[in-house]
Amino acid sequence: MTTLLLTGATGLVGSRLLPRLADAGFACRALVRRDVALPDGVTALRGDLDDPDSLPSAVAGVDAVVHLAALFRTDDEDAIWRANLDGTRHLVDAVTAHAPDARVVMASTGNVYDATAAWPSRETDTCSPTLAYPASKLAAEGVLRDSGLTWSILRLPFVYGDGDGHLASMPRLAPRFGLHPAHTYSVAHHRDVAAIVRLALTGAADGRIVNLTDDAPVTVWEMAELAGEPVEPSAAPLEHPWAGRMDGSLARELGFRPTVPTIRAAAAEGIL
Ligand SMILES: NC(=O)c1ccc[n+]([C@@H]2O[C@H](COP(=O)([O-])OP(=O)(O)OC[C@H]3O[C@@H](n4cnc5c(N)ncnc54)[C@H](OP(=O)(O)O)[C@@H]3O)[C@@H](O)[C@H]2O)c1
Fold first, then answer.
1. Model-level pTM greater than 0.85?
2. By three-state DSSP, how is residue 198 classified?
3. 263 CA to middle of ligand 1, Å?
4. Domains, the chain, with CATH or none
5. How far is the CA of 72 from the centre of ligand 1 (A)?
6. What is the pLDDT of residues 48-107, one digit of tens each?
7. Which distant-in-sequence residues (6+ apart) come within 8 Å of 36 by Cβ?
């Protein structure tokens, strides 16, 4: 049985990934900073990426690490860099010292890609993010890539589903970030985050950066409609038509098939 450590297990993505990994037969440890209810059979390991001394006991003996923990829902840029870059460095150092044969699967973000892209962004595209969140995630990717460990990096799109409230937040996010209603996001359901993480845990994505997308990008307009709260219409031209869009062909070449192909399929299945 593969023993894995999940960081970020209490987050929007991790709390939905953890039960799926446990159900799939992985012996799961979860790095947690506080008392929290975890699925049956999961071992809680107290630790904080800010505290390197808390990490050796969490990683010792694991076959794999799935690294989701990150900070981005804040304006505190120093804290974002500390959690995302320094935190990843601390984790990578601990794995290197105490579980050097472990496979490390790290979640990154499609936000690393340039908004001015001329096509749906590919893993090989040059990225030069300036905002703290994507810049710190790209730097953290570099730490893992240069570590000498066995790694893969999954660039996640807008993740939704299982009643997580993310889609429902779109009508509020759209005016806050000045999103045109025709702005189009690549998206994926939590079930397919689990699917691609499981694929990466087989080694199929070793040494690669891989975009995750479902089969049908979706507009802010449609997301807001699905959330039951339409956004303001606009006939103005869309400034950057490819911003938010990722090319998902590499994942498919590696064997990934979305189990929730479109957001409308999720709506029909009652798993939004
Ligand atoms: N959600 C999306 O649509 C989306 C899209 C693209 C990429 N991603 C990526 O997916 C990952 C998870 O995102 P999310 O939406 O689940 O984020 P989230 O809801 O904000 O959760 C963040 C998680 O990281 C943990 N964490 C933060 N700082 C930590 C530290 N210093 N030490 C240990 N744990 C720490 C948090 O623990 P506490 O509960 O203790 O705070 C929480 O479990 C991130 O890497 C993100 O970049 C997400």
1. yes
2. helix
3. 22
4. 3-159+189-213+246-259 (3.40.50.720)
5. 8
6. 999 999 999 999 999 999 999 999 999 999 999 999 999 999 999 999 999 999 999 999
7. 9, 10, 44
